[in-house]
Amino acid sequence: MRRPSSVISRRVAAASVSVVLAAGAAACGPEDSGAKSTGSADGKPQRGGTLTILNSRPQEDFDPARLYTSGGGNVPSLVFRTLTTRNREDGEAGAKVVPDLATDLGKPSKNATVWTYTLKEGLKYEDGTPITSADVKYGIERSFAAELSGGAPYLRDWLIGGADYQGPYKDKKGLASIEVPDARTIVFHLNKPEGEFPFLATQTQTTPVPKAKDTGTKYEQHPVSSGPYKVVKNEGDGQRLILERNPHWSAATDAERKAYPDRVDVRSGLDSAVINQRLSASQGPDAAAVTTDTNLGPAELAKVNGDKSLAARVGTGHFGYTNYLAFNPKVKPFDNPKVRQAISYAVDRTTVVNAAGGSSLAEAATTFLPNQKSFGHTPYDHFPAGKSGDPEKAKQLLKEAGHPGGLTITLTHSNAQDFETSPEIATALQDALKKAGITVKLQGLEENDYSDKVHSAKDEPGLFLAHWGADWPSGGPFIAPIFDGRQIVKDGYNFNSAFLNDKAVNDEIDEINKLTDLEAAAARWGALDKKIGEQALTVPLFHPVYKRLFGKSVKNVVISNWTGVLDVSQVSVK
């Protein structure tokens, strides 16, 4: 989340989850937006030209060890290739994992604790030297160094010995759980079954790094490219990033990146309104411009929809993300399931969606998992409130819970003006619950205070607005951090807000993790989501919908359900 560096991990501050949302917004395809996927009169994209990327946040920490995911930002994937990658297609097809540097998705042992990858032949860096499996091993090992922190925690959690390893600058021996028997083979030994390792192999930490070229914390200034573009300028820690062609990249080894433009100019630190104005005007270089982190707001969208030419240049879609109400059952009266159920029935999702920007920017949710096939989405609505809530059913449940005269509760939210935990959404919920006899006192906190409070096992409030996004399009990184009792963190950032520690749930998570058939695993994640939903530990509110402009000369628009961002590796601008 999604993850600049999008961070959705039980070890990292949840404030960055909103970065994921912003960094990964917009998915579906040009058929939904009216955009045409052609690059010339005969319908074929053309090589050449300069692609400009206008973003509000800088592409900081441009080091594969420090970036959270390749999916969290399109720009890194132009320079860094990984063992596997996302399928570069529109919509749901783009939520699949495919080989990148490797010849396949990896060969697992019977219990999915050992994964073996073979590198393709003919892989080269920007200087023409060959890419080896030892370089992939070294790239992973350096991501464990404290001075290069910021990346995803999974390898540290999953690799045998990973929890204690301090990186190659302190431990010259390296990680014994990563073996390189020859120049094209790399073997991973895990401490438990992980059937979704092919997804993890898309993380930028699996980018090869030649040890002789490693400059530590300065590596981000000129990381050695394994992708179609190389860094020729990095100003202001990613404020301005200029990429030019890597002459030694071969399309014959890379079926995913099209790399049509000759040059990519990334300009960051811009005001969101300025970005949308420039894309709308589409003058000069801005005609060949896109954004990977700036959405259209309700007012801007209304203006765009009134202009057919502009409306045809809007990418529309979905990123795996859910906004919800979170309960802390340790706090009264939320320890009573009937109180939680009553609130579930009382919620008016129509007013919540309106507060989030309207139906063009949000879809009502009744499931915790996003409504996408890759997550194993299984439709359910255990507490059907309809479009506008069921206050009478809520009153009945409150009476059964021992509150015939209603009750007073506090809802904690962020004061930040975004559509995730905003005061507007909190007010909409306050109004809806009032109809059921529930008086809601609003506790608005500044963003940092909000994040610290709601993710503190000691100080977590009884009811608060929350959100969650996926590190990859699967139920695993969605369900486990929120509902696996073994991931409850008592002295750090905790995301299992309900403190659920159900052996049956934990065991099912372990069983699903053993599956290497990703479709079978998805079905099991969906079934588990439905089962957990019966306990009313959360109230799903909405799944975001994203709208983003692109310049009038931008062709070959591809927007997948993995990143939700217009894929800059596919764009043609000439």
Characterization of this structure:
The chain is α+β, with helices and mostly antiparallel strands and 574 residues long. It has 2 domains: 14-263, 3-Layer(aba) Sandwich (D-Maltodextrin-Binding Protein, domain 2), CATH 3.40.190; 321-544, Dipeptide-binding Protein, Domain 3 (Dipeptide-binding Protein, domain 3, Roll), CATH 3.10.105.10. The chain has helices spanning 17-23, 30-33, 76-79, 133-142, 154-158, 197-200, 272-281, 298-305, 308-311, 337-346, 349-355, 391-400, 423-434, 447-454, 476-483, 503-513, 518-533, and strands at residues 50-54, 84-86, 97-99, 107-108, 114-118, 178-182, 185-189, 229-235, 240-245, 263-267, 289-290, 314-317, 321-327, 362-364, 407-414, 438-445, 463-469, 538-544, 546-549. It has a 5-stranded mixed sheet with strand order 8-9-10-1-11, with no helix packed on it. Strand 6 (178-182) and strand 7 (185-189) form a beta hairpin. The model is unreliable at 1-42 (pLDDT under 50).
